[in-house]
Amino acid sequence: MSYVIEARGLVRRYPADGSPIRAVDGVDLVVEAGEAVSVMGPSGCGKSTLLHLLGGLERPDEGELRLGGVRVDGLSETRWAVFRRRNVGFVFQAFHLVDELTAVENVELPALLVGMGRREARHRALELLERLGVAERAGHLPDHLSGGERQRVAVARALVNEPLIVLADEPTGNLDSRATGEILRLFGELHKAGQAVLVVTHDARVASTADRLFTMRDGAIVGQTRLGADTPVAGLFADLADLGSER
Amino acid sequence: MRWSAMGAGARLAARNLRHRPGQALLLLVTLTIATGVLGVAMSLYGSADAAWDRVWRATGGFDVGVGVYHGPDQPGDRALVAELRRRAVQLARAPGVAEVSGPSNSLSGSIRIRGGTEDLSAEVVDPNTADTPLVTSGRWLGDGGGIVLESGLAAAVGASPGDTVTIQGRPFPVRGVAMTAAGRYPLYRPAQIWVTPQTAAAMRDLGMREDGFALAIRLVDPNQAEAFIATHQEFEVSDPSSSVTSFLETAQQRRAASHSDLDGMTDTLFAAGILIAILTVATASVLVAGRMAARIRQVGTLKAVGVTPRQVALVLLVEHLAIAVVATTIGLGIGRLLAPAIAGTSVSLLGRPEPPPLTWSRIGAVAAVAFAVVLLGTVRPALRGIRQSTLRSLDAGPRPPRRPGRLAGLAARAGVPVPGVLGLRSAWRRPGRLLTNATGLALGVAVIVVALGLRESLDLLQLRPTEPGQATADAAVAALYDQIRGIIFATGGLLLLLAAINAWIVATLAARDAARNQAVMRAVGATPRQTVTSLVVSQLVACAIAVVAGIPLGLGLWSVIDGGDLPPVRVPATSLVLLAAAVPIAFAALVSVPARLLARRPIAPLLTYE
Question: Is A14 in CB contact (< 8 Å) with chain B?
Fold first, then answer.
């Protein structure tokens, strides 16, 4: 079996007044090629930290991490960056577009970083923006785009180098219901196209688009559900409510 | 405003200073550079006066000096000189005159010095007169001839009592060395000696000719010297067809003329101090603007709970005025400490330099500059920050750009690597800071160009062959300009230091502004080195503007100075190229430090930074 993500015993501690807080506490997690995975949990359960660990934005204190079969937890900052630009695409709740670059420049940035020619990078970026329905906004700065448009640009940026995995952190957290619907449709399409996606969210509608759902509490994965067309989404909400009340 | 509110404002200001000592220290350092230079200028101004006054008193100095000089080989002027001598005798009998010395005649000749000859004026005096210069070694003229050398000349010739000097090709024994309030060789020219009538006769036989006479008048009321001169203006002749020059001068005028080299240094220091103060306005402005950006949320919170904009402005003003007071005190202290050492390099001093007393007007002048810097630097950014709506203040963050930069677009099309293009994109994000940075650096570069020109010119001066009768003229000019060159180099260095502080502050603030963007770039695969490059390039734009503007500005300033006593010289192109290369390299090294510090920080927390 080929895994795009294979995490074993990941631990991330933060210093605190007393003993350190274990934000991620011994997480084991695998994601297969083409699989869509959701991680749900209440605020502060460590799901964003887990996503940061998986993408190399933070370093684990313990544990092993392999992406596409490559051991990455010990990589230097520079090697991680080079690995990330080819193999990981990020989508953030706050979009995190470079605000001095236009939409198309934001999308082509990772392509240019991997050494793609300018023309090819621009062509690829425009193609993706076209596919995501924001081609007419290509020359605009992020400040002039709506929330939904910004997130679509962010998704295009995440996809430009055809990464092993797209890591999305609350991708609909800052969007209105219409834009949320558009992004959900987009993630559905990505999934159908065989793109491996890991989404952390507390929105059950987003979580329900995945093949598997992990639930987190106090830094640990406490449950795993394989989702199908007949899985009741309401049940997911109930699980979350239970987790919240236990905290 | 009520006392309770003022007290609260002062307490808050003190707390803010304690909580942000780095920023306060930076402002203090930059402000102290300005007040320190002005303090030195202030202490230097008049530091030769006390020594001059002592010599003037010891030699029974004149209240009004009368002088007549003419070319020794111009017999056609004899009638006019005789007429002036008659008028001088009348002057000596004028109302208000208490005592008169002279007229004493002088002879013109030459003295051998350093393998060349130097024009010489021998004042013929009665060996038994009570009005003598201040003898500092040996003895005054007596029976048996010989000469007394003016102290500056004795130092230049390297002669002491008992030695001989060669005048008109013949050796004359040196009886003594003396100081005079007239001035000190080589700044005061021609070289001065005193001789008896007997020695003068021997000198006439050697070809020396009379070239004028002098009269020293002491008044019943010394304060009337200027009025006396105004009453007797007919004595002063200005006939361009004649070689005769006659003049009346007060002791104060002579004192001021006796140390023109120190005046040159003082003027240069004042100019430097003002230039540095102007730059400090920029530094203070950037610091306060940056501080407002960092505190804007806090200001918003204060406003939300009912603190008025005026009270917020008051707190900021109190903080910075406190820094201005400390900078004034340190600056004046530095002035008192350094001025004697700087004045000691003067060739015109008649003794040990003494800084004049620290009067309230002198303290006030330095304090006024410091306060003006603080007010000009603080008020605008503070008001801009305070005037923002409370809601916007609470939602603070770097302002997003309004349109994509064209320069970056061109650079991208020209194949500039991605980090460079990104750097160019963010360069214009804070145009005010960019221009402040560029202005400071440009002034520093311009002053260094002037100093380079002076160095070349002085080197040339030392190689220039001396003219007859001017053996040490170039040396005197070199000595004077060497001091000024030192000050200009130091000023250039201080300006560059200030520019470096400015650049550091701006780069640190830029790093703070760029933190989120840099983290995003790293998240999508940019390496730490690429993000550092991007930030450094964004700052290098200011440096490029500074070099492009500063070098022509410096060359322009040099062309103005170049017209004086110095040999005309072009600043070598190699020096300019080196300067144009060295400044950006040093600048890049400096601004890369905050960029590297930022690149070392973990990405995830930066992504949430606002």
Answer: no
